[in-house]
Amino acid sequence: MERIISRLVGQYESGRIGRRDLIAILSGLAVAGRSAPAAESPFRGVEINHVALRVTDIPRSKEFYQNLLGLPTMSESATSCFLRAGDNFLTLFKGSEPKLDHYCFGVQGYDVQKATATLRAAGLKVRQPVGTNRVYFNDPDGIEVQLAAPGHMSA
């Protein structure tokens, strides 16, 4: 956990992520850390794979992040834009109000069926979009969390 936090602070200090993103990610780490000690955790999170934001104006937000942080475009459509941030990415989704949509942990040895079963056994309501290997669930504060393999969509 200390290595992850150190890496996040380094990304913030170098301007690769903003203050709001840093706070959102650290909050998620704090909440996740309260549920069980790392030695007893059913998953081993090895990266914050991406953060997804709801924004009211995708072109404006894209321009902001590209001009301020130099994030190149991975792909985009009328309703979404994916911006590369080193080995990770920032997703912008069209929304009626700005907010954190979700964040994704890259999990070592990720297997979608095992992950789904483990999360359900922990009493969590799991959402898996049909035909994907992505699983989503809410943390105790209702923030949506995604699990995926490390490097998910990094190519």
Structure explained in plain terms:
Helices cover 33% and strands 30% of the residues. It is globular and about 45 Å long. Strands 2-3-4-1-5-7-6 form a seven-stranded mixed beta sheet, covered by helices on one side. The mean pLDDT is 85. With 155 residues, the chain is an alpha/beta fold.
Uncertain stretches: none
* Counted beta strands: 7
Tell me the series of helices and strands, N- to C-terminal.
Answer: HHEHEEEEHEE
- How would you state the average pLDDT, rounded? 85
- Rg: 15 Å
Helix share, percent: 25-40%
Keywords, separated by commas or semicolons:
single chain; 155 residues; alpha/beta
Topology:
Blueprint: H1 2-13, H2 19-35, E1 45-55, H3 58-69, E2 73-76, E3 80-85, E4 88-94, E5 99-107, H4 112-121, E6 135-138, E7 144-148
Parallel strand pairs: 1-4, 5-7
Antiparallel strand pairs: 1-5, 2-3, 3-4, 6-7
Summarize it.
This protein has 155 residues and is α/β, with parallel strands linked by helices. The chain has helices at 2-13, 19-35, 58-69, 112-121; strands spanning 45-55, 73-76, 80-85, 88-94, 99-107, 135-138, 144-148.
